[in-house]
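Researcher: Last one for today. Full complex below.
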Amino acid sequence: MSDVGELVSLVSFLVVNQGISLRDAAKATHRTPKKLLNDLDRLIMCGVPPYTPSDYFHYSLKGHGDNARVKVNFASHFARPLTFTPQEALALKYALEHFSRGADSETTKQIDALTEALKEALHGRVHELLADAGKGFVTPRQTDRMRSMIGLLSAAAEDQQLVEIEYYSAHRARLGTRKIHPFAVLEIGAHFYLFAYCGLAEDTRHFRLDRIRDARVLDVFFDEAPPKKRKLGKMEALFQGTPKDKLVVRFSKQVAREVIDEWSDSPGVKIEQLRDGRAVIETPLYNQFWAIGFVMGFGEYAELLEPKWLRVELAETIRRSLQAHL
Amino acid sequence: MPIAIGPTERQLNLLSTLLKARGPISWHDIARIDGYSDDETSIRSRQKRFERDMKALENTGLRVSRTTDGVRPSYEIDRGACLLPSLPMSPEQRLLMFRIGMSYLEHDDAGPFKKHLSSALLKLQAGAGSAGLPADLPRTFVKRSLNRRPAESNRLAVIGEALLERRRVTFQYEGQRRDGVDKRTVAPYALVSRRGGWYLVGYDTARKGVRTFRLSRIRGTVSLATPQMSAPEYDVPTDFDAEGSFSTEVFGRGDNAFKDVQIAFDAEVAFVVENEFAGIYKIEKRKDGSITLHLPQAYPGELLRYLGEFPGHWEVRKPTELREMVVKNLKAALKTLEGRAR
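Model: Here's the assembly. Have a good evening.
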């Protein structure tokens, strides 16, 4: 959106939401309070002939700091925002579609009703795009069970209610029960995770939702906020902490290119491409169960070189898998 | 000396005047607007400045009609086409839209939605009645992201935004046969995510047909094919179906894929498989809690990556060729591990 379009939308938003706090206005308009004030200061230069004081845009702040309430005056001609651009209409459509693929049935119904209402109200090119454009971002649809789980845990996070989960930990390689304080449901990579404080680990954890066998919301409430220091939802957060060791894996030339494609640009990873087409990847080892699964996934095309103790564990796991096939 | 004002403020003044006017306005009215009223500049230069600004406003989607009385032109904004109509949204729907938007935008992983979704939501909140959002906005408890792999995120952001803007992209691509890298120019029709990451489906201008590109096989950066342009360059055909054009089959599909695959999982991990595939693929349950997953097709590579998540908890039942291949693989991997101490 151009500067003009953005500033007009900002004024329209403030005209409709008179008295909103500076903090909430900044959050809802996707900018910092400082940037919001800068934009408002740019607008006070704007007006219409004959430029009497009431022909200039004006704003006032009542209160202090980010809690100050914002009021705007002399902007009735901006009471309605400019219509959507085709790009904005598509962004709305694609985001609603994508969100639906991982939403519970009640939310999906609400999204469908919302989409219909928008289609009904809009016209021209924007209506055509909302009504007729095909899917733009196609992701796998979550199963009904997963969608319900996402809904249940999102609500528990919002209501700040403790949850008891039965969880299959790849780290411990077994099912266990934990009481957790849910903070947020996150889509990271191809999976959904619950970011929560875990009573068993006495620390925050990312729990993969598809590994939760059962979740029971308890009638117990908590009031602590999620720790701010964490990079909430960053993919690297799943591979952080103190490395147990260094993982070194060599891949044969049949899969080397694919592995390089996947791992290049990943934090903390060294890739060496050998002259004969093979590749060696070196990465901090945080979780040996993940590493075993990762190497086994490549079958004979990957050889775990280090650490030695993990070679022993991997061999044992392969023997168990072979046993299942005899 | 008059205060110099920038083009944005000047255009805002022009737009305000057009919106406030109840009928067509002439150059006489425009020449009173700050930004076009400086007497020290010639009328010709100020009129040119006005024409440039008018074009800039029209590029944002504004429609301004020009009429003439035979001598002097006049200008009037088409309110119906320019302003967002009243959106019949309930307070609950406004809040839902706010939550959905924030789930993508309130983190530094917004990817291709960042620019246009943010501005669309702002307009939507401004245009949806006078009730406004609640006095205290809720925290965001759900984070949604299109990113699948860190290495893909920059390419996804550029191609995704080009898809929204209907702009062609260009990049160096190494195909599946790994027989070299070549330059492709593509009109993006859709982005499809599978277990292996994101795929671009689009019209390849040199090959004159729809092709599929795996984002991780793109070498270097992706850029707009004609960065100097700003207008949309193509339309996605109305009969284009992203899911029909490119298989969303989880483990792939094609001539070399194994057919009618059956994998058994023990009771300990069965529910994880059910969480992901119940209602999508046939799952047979047994009394001891174990299950058999039936897949219509699967490439062994993609399937083995998935099975790697459950070391020691699965068995390939069918087809026999796949089972034998897996056993051979496991034996080979074990032999390597046992035969060579490093």
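Chain B has a mean pLDDT of 86. Residues 103 and 205 of chain B are 36 Å apart (CA to CA).
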